[in-house]
Design a protein that fits this description.
Blueprint: E1 2-5, H1 11-23, E2 27-32, E3 37-42, H2 50-55, E4 60-64, E5 84-86, E6 89-91, E7 97-101, H3 108-121, E8 125-127, H4 145-158, E9 162-165, H5 172-178, E10 181-184, H6 192-199, E11 205-208, H7 215-227, E12 233-237, H8 255-262, E13 267-269, H9 271-275, H10 281-290, E14 295-299, H11 306-325, H12 328-333
Parallel strand pairs: 7-8, 7-14, 8-9, 9-10, 10-11, 11-12, 12-13, 13-14
Antiparallel strand pairs: 1-3, 1-4, 2-3, 5-6
Bound molecules: phosphoenolpyruvate (PEP) and manganese (II) ion.
Manganese (II) ion binds at residues 103, 273, 299, 350-351.
Length: 351
């Protein structure tokens, strides 16, 4: 349930409503908008007459029962957008935040080099997996804590905060000790034990959309984290499975404005995993920015391979430059003044 205060309701009237809610055994979340304040009521078993009783209090305009299955994640509950603070970065505000780095942490040199390249190209967060969710048990599973140490070293050198994935509840304390943002991957979107574990923390979590999850299921997964008390949730659209095979996944860009309408949480796009092809990353990154994404997660895995190093780094650099100067229309219309794509097609392997 939400309590909508009248325009111009006084701080005392707002405080009075909060006191009454607490007396009745509920908690509250106050959203102070430009025009009015909305108080979200947190708790279960809300009696049928609570709304009417609250509406009699001074300064209350109306109460509404929320019909969506997710509450804390919904914009009805909290009309003002959530801004997740990571050091001096504000994810979900008007800044556009690019997170970039290798798919997996493979060596100290690779991470340091990629971190420098990512920083030089304008990235604000360094990504890299030390624990990798692999389809095959024979694939490289990640360096574990050693990888986290390399990421921390790269952060110390470049000043870039880090984001890295946690796969297992048992690893949450260790990964949380090293990272600035915990990443929950597509394969774990409905790992409820893991959602609960990160919900108990007080640090940023990026929740990727399950590859076969509906938007409602994705928001319900976010609800688990919020319900645990952790409000610092960032969503990430990373492509879903459809019948289409031309790209590795179908990056569901329409999900971004839909989620922004339904929820107050920041949303970033991952066009790398979302398409699986390098030539699609720059145009889809620009398109994501155009539809309102709060940032990007870009995988620069091929940087470790010397032959591709220059070309991939340059594509990434050009892409950021383009975002900065707002050349998106040229890009999207494929106009002659558009940017040359330096890597015609590079299929990315692994996850
Ligand atoms: C990743 O970001 O490295 C990753 C494994 O992504 P996803 O969970 O989206 O496949
Ligand atoms: Mn990956």
């Amino acid at each position: 349930m939400i309590v909508v205060m009248q325009r111009g309701a006084t701080p005392e009237q707002i405080e009075h409503v909060i006191e009454r809610l607490r007396e009745a055994g509920y908690r509250e979340q106050v959203s102070t908008g430009e025009e009015r304040t909305v108080i979200g009521v947190i708790g279960t078993g809300i009696p049928a007459d609570l709304g009417e009783r609250l509406e009699m209090l001074p300064g209350v305009e109306a109460t509404h029962r929320l019909t969506k299955p997710y509450k804390l994640a919904s914009r009805d509950f909290k009309p003002v957008r959530t801004v997740v603070q990571v050091g001096d970065l504000s994810i979900g505000s008007d800044e556009f935040v690019v997170m970039a780095g290798p798919c997996s942490v493979e060596s100290r040199e690779q991470v340091l080099q990629t971190a420098r390249a990512a920083k030089a190209a304008g990235a604000r967060v360094l990504r890299g997996g030390a624990y990798k969710p692999r389809t095959s048990p024979y694939s490289f599973q990640g360096l574990g804590e050693e990888g986290l140490e390399y990421l921390a070293e790269a952060r110390a050198e470049t000043g870039l905060p880090i984001i890295t994935e946690v796969l297992d509840t048992a690893d949450v304390p260790l990964v949380a000790k090293y990272t600035d943002i915990l990443q929950l991957g597509t394969r774990n979107m409905q790992n409820f034990a893991l959602l609960r574990a990160v919900g108990n923390l007080d640090m940023p979590v990026m929740l990727k959309r399950g590859m076969s999850a509906t938007i409602e299921e994705w928001l319900m997964a976010a609800e688990y984290i919020l319900h645990g008390g952790n409000k610092q949730v960032i969503l990430c659209e990373r492509g879903i499975r459809t019948f289409e095979t031309a790209a590795r996944n179908t990056l569901d860009l329409s999900a971004i404005p839909i989620v922004k309408k339904l929820s107050h949480l920041p949303v970033v796009a991952d066009p790398s995993h979302g398409t699986g092809k390098w030539y699609l990353v720059p145009p889809m990154a620009l398109a994501a920015a155009a539809v309102g994404a709060d940032g990007l997660l870009i995988r620069d895995g091929a940087l470790a391979e010397p032959v591709r190093e220059v070309t991939v780094a340059s594509t990434f650099q050009r892409m950021l430059l383009d975002l900065e100067v707002g050349n998106d229309l040229q890009w999207l219309s494929g106009g002659a003044a558009g940017i040359t794509i330096l890597v015609p097609e590079m299929t990315m392997s692994g996850s």
